[in-house]
Amino acid sequence: SNSQQTVFSGSWMLVATWDQVKAFPGNSANTNTFQGILITNGWRSYAVFTYKCGLLEWSGEATIGFYAEGDFYMNHPLSGVNSTQIACVNGGLWNNVVYSLKVSFSLPFLDVSTVLKLPKFLDATSGSIQTGDLGFPIGNSTQNEVYVSTNGYFSFGRPITAFEAFPFPNDFNYLVAPFWSDIDIRGGDGGEIYYQVHSRGSNSVSDELLDEVSVFVSNSQQTVFNGSWMLVATWDQVKAYSGDPFNNNTFQGILITNGSRSYAVFTYKCGLLEWSGGATIGFYAEGDFYMNHPLSG
Predict the structure, then answer these.
(1) Residue 152 Rama label (left phi>0; alpha psi -120 to 50; beta)
(2) What phi, psi does 163 have (nearest 5°)?
(3) Over the stretch 193-207, which tens digit does the pLDDT of each residue have?
């Protein structure tokens, strides 16, 4: 995290050490010791190469770097005859080389299917969801409660049951819409709407998910962000009111804040939006602070 100026929490790692290895053919008295680490959280990956000054005694014109495909590769400038210098390049005892192997700006769906559900009624909302000790800044205000609507949006301050979508700005401020449309989840095959709240320090699962979304926000917004509260809602295989009963939509909306900055993350997967319903996608706080996604409608 420090070397890449980001927030990263790995979930899998492979560590390999080449200990006092010799060159073939080479001076039998010279040995090299170095270490390589591969680490990932499932959607971002890094390689960390570790060297200690004095423990690289032969070069063998080594290649140092990586190659994935196409133009995605890197050769360290000290590859080749000068490769032994990499161990002492910083004038210290240790040197680490870190490569970002994949930075994906696609956040997969977070799993919330085992938690709270909205009632299977038309135009229903969740109960009041408290936004944590610091509140949720949006526009020029800080909101302390939010509601999830069956109709594809979050509303702050009060429940909203509007089913007809309008471009922003409109009469409904403090509204964040991953896919505002007239959604019908009634019946056994009408789909489900799940939601879950995560607070920093409440449990290890919440901390890991907050880390994952914080890393995504940090990279996509080119900033450093560490969220402390998050609401995740998934509209799973939901249908349009008076629409084709065989067409379903699945999408996810995330609200995340650290108490001073807030973000909304909308997640869609190709092939899982089968109807449009003239949806509004975006947000509206107040005044001129709003956004309509160009693919709304």
Answers:
(1) left
(2) -105, -25
(3) 999 999 999 998 899
- Residues 235, 238, 243: CA angle, nearest 5 degrees: 145
Tell me the residue length of the chain.
297
Q: Which residues of the chain have pLDDT under 70?
A: 90-91, 102-105
One-letter amino acid at 205 equals V
CA diameter of the chain? 81
Q: Residue 32's pLDDT is what?
A: 94
Q: What b/e string do you get for 120-156 counting C-beta neighbours within 10 Å, with b at 16 or more?
A: beebbbbeebebbeebbbbbeebbbbbbbbbbbbbbb
Report phi then psi at 257, rounded to 5: -150, 160
Specify the DSSP element, H or E, that contains 197.
strand 192-199
H-helix or E-strand spanning residue 147? strand 145-148
Q: What does the alpha-carbon distance between residue 81 and residue 75 come to, in Å, rounded to a whole number?
A: 13
Instruction: Output the pLDDT for position 221.
Output: 84
pLDDT of amino acid 126: 97
Both tokens assigned to 232: 């995740």
Radius of gyration of the chain (CA): 25
Instruction: Look up tokens 């995330």; give the residue.
Output: 254
CA 202 from centroid of its chain's CA atoms: 20
Q: Decide: 198 and 210 in contact? Cβ < 8 Å.
A: yes
* Tokens 């319903």 belong to residue: 277
